[in-house]
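Input chain follows. Return structure tokens only.
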Amino acid sequence: MHRYKPVRLILENGMVFHGQSFGAEKATSGEVVFNTAMVGYPESLTDPSYEGQILTLTYPIIGNYGVPAYSETDGVSDFFESCRIHAYGLILQDYSDEYSHWNAVKSLGDWLKEEGVPGITGIDTRLLTKVLREKGSMLGKIMYAGDDEIDFYDPETENLVAKVSCSEVIEYGQGEKKVVLIDCGAKLNIVRELVKQGVRLIRVPWDYDFNRIDYDGVMISNGPGNPDHCGITVAHIREAMKKEKPIFGICMGNQLLSKAAGANIYKLKYGHRSHNQPVQKVGSSRCYITSQNHGYAVDESQLGAEWEPWFVNMNDGTNEGIRHKTKPFYSVQFHPEATGGPTDTRFFFEEFVKMI
């Protein structure tokens, strides 16, 4: 039996949760959010969309299948969604340090320590989730006895997309069709899925003027934080629309394309973070179960007359995608690349490549 050091989670409303540390022993702060997925913690922790956030997992037992080794194929990680953990902390009810999986090489706790990320176990995650649902996502900090006091960190004050985007142009694949991926914090499975479709993929930084190069289509990736920080990206998207070549956005990409189409973005009370979000195609009875991770949504009432809502969330009625009525511009708020999560909507990648 391991003995873990006592640690506190302190919320901005004054609530304090006491638990035990199983990760890096350092103070940190960020926005406390929750995810209801049962599996997929290696993928979630390395998802750049969690930059600046302290992640609460509602499934009670976490860590039982460990963490895989880092390996690459053609410059892309085989099992993670980026090269590092982006969450600022991890909150669990019951951590399992004994793991069993054919591909595991270390425990979740050891991985967090290597990456310098705090982890707390022994927290009543049901109560914490109820608080976040009632009050909304809020700022929090992880503190140990004897630590110097730290301020609450609000990730909305920073351009998180600039922190997680690639810093230079990166190319993948050898296909004849050339696709630009605007990296706003792209999950690597977007890269894998596009390369699988046989395209030449050009991954560019969030503020790169990709319109000066030749391409057949544009993919706008997911990413963290407030999309209002990405005005320069929106300007480049509007310029790309003049070429009338296919444009497809995912998650943050849905919000940026919507801003380019005239819509406003607003912050959700506690966001959509799970592997089981039902979305309905507008004008039909077809429903898909989707993986999601976002804290903002599109106000579709502000879309231009040439645009229309494409999908709607069946839980709360929020927008889950838009499309142009006559041109090949469209986007979804959910993650068709999944990882982790259901694969119901991976066909979007096939359809996008066929379109170009």
